[in-house]
Design goal:
Structural class: mainly alpha
Mean pLDDT: 84
Largest sheet: 2 strands, antiparallel
Strand content: under 5%
Strand order of the largest sheet: 1-2
Length: 313
């Protein structure tokens, strides 16, 4: 015990403060940027804007939109995946679940039409989440990105055919959806019938074998459990897509003599525009500093004081 040394700093000794440490970050001219959008933000904005533009066929009739032009290139689609709004997914489900909870407290006996509709709303949200995962997988296959294997593993791990059918969250969703919505269009789930049966539906007969058996106890909790599993898949997909996008963007930023990157012409032109647009962004973000310099030097006619060393008082 005699070898233990306790080092206790002197209570009156301190390093003091410098002029740099006393400067508030919010007062720095570059703290606020008028345009802080990154290349990823601009790519996502272009994709969302393209989704609002109608595509017309040769007969001058609307046939989809222009978003598909941004979903055929690796860089742009990874930007779209990394911009998945997880908060919106959770908010949409929580609001519908809260509305159901209010109805359950109001109607203790029997079942009202509003309660039935509330259950339908939850089932429809879960259906859209599952359809979104399947849609992302198909587009990743189309652009031949390795992220497709990750998403396929997430889908199959929860929907293997050798697992009991209703133990699968997707099969649970179908069973509950059938029981809760007597007007359910079966064709909605034909989208999940695939050759590899990744969702557990090898043919349309598999859908018919799933019985519409609503659980007697706590269907709300079962729906919440399905949501958590689908939501976790979105979290993994978003995080891995963000990492893949950063790697892809870093690869494109390298000099041409190190690695040659083939990009589709329309995407290449847009990326070239974004790189030129970056100069305009930098100039715009310097507006605050230029305004402060003009105000203090031209309007107030103040001169910059020479630098002074720190001193101890």
């Amino acid at each position: 015990m005699s070898n233990i040394i306790i080092r206790q700093p002197h209570p009156l000794r301190r390093n003091g403060s410098t002029r740099i440490t006393r400067l508030l970050a919010a007062l720095a001219p570059d703290h606020f940027q008028l345009d802080d959008r990154s290349m990823q933000d601009l790519l996502v904005a272009a994709h969302r804007y393209a989704a609002l533009l109608s595509w017309f066929d040769f007969s001058d009739r609307p046939d989809g939109d222009w978003a598909c032009f941004w979903e055929t290139e690796t860089l742009t689609y990874l930007a779209v995946l990394s911009a998945i709004d997880l908060n919106q997914l959770r908010k949409e489900y929580d609001e519908a679940d809260y509305a159901l909870g209010v109805l359950l407290e109001s109607y203790e006996e029997g079942e009202s039409q509003q309660e039935t509709q509330a259950y339908r709303n939850l089932a429809e949200i879960l259906y859209r989440m599952a359809k979104g995962l399947e849609g992302h997988y198909r587009k990743l296959v189309a652009i031949r990105h390795p992220l497709q294997h990750l998403l396929l593993g997430l889908i199959r791990r929860a929907n293997e055919r050798d697992i009991e059918e209703l133990a699968s969250p997707f099969f649970q969703l179908i069973s509950l959806h059938k029981a809760m919505d007597d007007q359910l269009n079966p064709e909605l789930y034909r989208y999940f019938v695939t050759d590899d049966a990744r969702w557990g539906l090898a043919d349309w007969a598999d859908y018919g074998r799933i019985m519409a058996e609503a659980p007697a106890d706590y269907p709300r909790e079962q729906l919440r459990g399905i949501f958590v599993k689908f939501y976790n898949a979105y979290v993994v997909l978003k995080n891995r897509a963000q990492r893949a996008f950063d790697e892809e963007l870093a690869r494109m930023e390298k000099p041409e003599n190190e690695e040659y990157r083939i990009v589709q012409p329309h995407i290449s032109l847009f990326i070239a525009f974004l790189r030129l647009f970056r100069h305009a962004q930098d100039s715009l973000n310097e507006l605050v500093k230029r305004q402060l310099d003009f105000y203090y030097e031209q309007v107030l006619a103040l001169h910059r004081a020479p630098a002074q060393p720190d001193s101890v008082f």
